[in-house]
Amino acid sequence: MGLGDLLVLVFFGIVPVCVTYYLQMQTVTWEVFIASLACGLVIDTLLLINNYRDRDNDRRAGKITLVVRVGERGGERMYLWAGFLAFVLGMVFIHNGHPFAAILPVLYIFMHFQTYKKMKKINHGRQLNMILGETARNMFIYGLMVTIGLLLSPLKANAQKSEMSRVRVTMNDGTQKEGNVTRYWSDGGGFKVMNRKFRMIENGVEREYTADDVKAVDFVMKNPQSTLNENVVSADVANPTTFSPKKVKRQFVHIEGTTNKGTIYWWNGVDSQQMQLGSLTVSTIFGVKLAGEEIIIPFMTGNVISLNAMRIRYKKTARKDLVEYLDKRVLKGGQKLWDKIQRDPMLFLELINEYNNK
Question: Structure pTM?
Answer without folding.
Answer: 0.55
